[in-house]
Design a protein that fits this description.
By secondary structure, the protein is of the alpha+beta class. It folds into two domains: 119 residues, no CATH class; 114 residues, no CATH class. 23% of the residues lie in helices and 27% in strands. The protein contains nine helices and 14 strands. It has a six-stranded antiparallel β-sheet with strand order 1-14-5-11-12-13, with no helix packed on it. A hairpin with a 3-residue loop joins strand 6 and strand 7. Helix 6 runs antiparallel to helix 9. The longest helix has 11 residues. Bound molecules: zinc ion (ZN).
Length: 294
């Protein structure tokens, strides 16, 4: 290890490299399967950007230096609330309200939104309901500009948008109907241990639309056909991750108990770094000031 970068942890940035589909089409060879390239991960540490894929197979250290600074206001906080906030910001920000996790509880219409202007931009805007395969099929919701980031953050190997709706609240109601028939959680241990078996997500979509026809029709009646749209013909996105070796048993580093996480980086999936010695959920330590050594 010869390089140390100091800064506050933040969610890893992800990018899907373009595949060489164009080459495959123009090739005179009979169509060979073109392997998708893995997600490219970058770790932001304040103003630094550390490309992580080149570090696969290398020894790394992440050492918590002891300070947590709120991702919103910068004040020092003994604990991190809601992924990197101080307690006052956690109580004040609309993005930390429980309706963000449970959008069917949106209370914007009651006039009690913590930050109506923020909500206009983040909640009262088009959302997608999707199926993703991370540790089996699950349903989820996301804003359009978070595709495919949201899927990658969950470690999904396949994802398919199945509905477009006009607000976050509506996406919550749709999700509520669909999760009577399909999971809405990822089993993160299973997600880290292997890639889930491939599933025909379009077939699952068609079956769900049938099973939930009544509920979806009611939502269309309530909000209008333009607000609640089924997407019958979207393509399933296949996602590859940079992984040399899957862990056989999962142990998690906990920087609050032991400030040093170290090992050989053998993979990256979702927002987890997989070391030969254990895994660490980078998102959980948002706003922790660390030394990153490689
Ligand atoms: Zn704060």
């Amino acid at each position: 290890m010869h390089e140390t970068t100091n800064g506050h942890l933040a969610k890893m940035k992800v990018a899907l490299p373009l595949t060489s589909t164009a080459n495959a089409e123009t090739s005179v060879e009979p169509s060979l399967e073109v392997d998708a390239l893995p997600v490219e991960y970058t770790l932001p540490l304040d103003d630094h950007r550390v490309p992580l894929n080149p570090l696969l197979g290398q020894s790394l250290q992440i050492e918590f230096a002891g300070a947590i600074h709120c991702t919103n206001c910068g004040r020092a906080s003994k604990k991190s609330f809601s992924q990197g906030h101080c307690y006052p910001c956690f109580k004040k920000l609309a993005s930390c309200d429980s309706c963000i996790m449970s959008p069917e509880k949106c209370h914007f219409d009651q006039g009690t939104c913590r930050e109506p202007e923020w909500a206009e931009q983040f909640c009262m805007t088009d959302h997608f309901v999707y199926l993703a395969n991370s540790s089996g099929v699950k349903v989820g919701i996301t804003r359009g500009n978070q595709i495919p980031t949201r899927w990658i953050d969950q470690g999904a190997t396949q994802a398919l948008p199945i509905m477009r709706v006009a607000t976050r609240y509506q996406s919550g109601l749709v999700e509520d109907a669909l999760r009577q028939h399909v999971a809405d959680r990822t089993n993160w241990r299973a997600m880290l241990k292997s890639n889930a078996e491939a599933v025909d997500l379009a077939a699952v979509r068609d079956q769900l639309f049938e099973q939930c026809a009544k509920e979806l029709a009611e939502l269309s009646d309530r909000f209008g056909l333009l607000a609640i749209q089924q997407l019958d013909a979207a393509d399933t996105l296949e996602i590859e991750y940079p992984i040399i070796e899957f862990p056989t048993k999962i142990s998690s580093f906990n920087l609050d108990k032991n400030p040093l996480a170290e090992g050989t980086l053998v993979g990256i999936k979702g927002q987890y770094l997989i070391f030969d010695t254990g895994v660490i959920n980078i998102r959980k330590y948002t706003s922790y000031q660390i030394d990153f050594r490689h």
